[in-house]
Design brief:
Arc Repressor Mutant, subunit A, 55% helix, globular
Amino acid sequence: MERLADSPRQEAQISDSAYSSLSRREQEILRSRRRPLQPEVAEVLFISRKTVENHRTNIMAKLGLHSTMELLRYAARLGLIDIDRWKS
């Protein structure tokens, strides 16, 4: 996660209809550059950790995902995170 947080973020061109169903704040949390999908994103967005957890739960429910790994794979497929950074 740390390597992903330090990687330069590219603006993804997202045309996924499920992604479009997320609220603007849920999309912001999913795109977060610093520790994506982790409670620490609360500090960056000036919200509580519990709020981040609630958003993550809502995101997963809306996308029909059942684990954080599935959520990370989804984000990688959309180009929101660079999964290749994990390999090095």
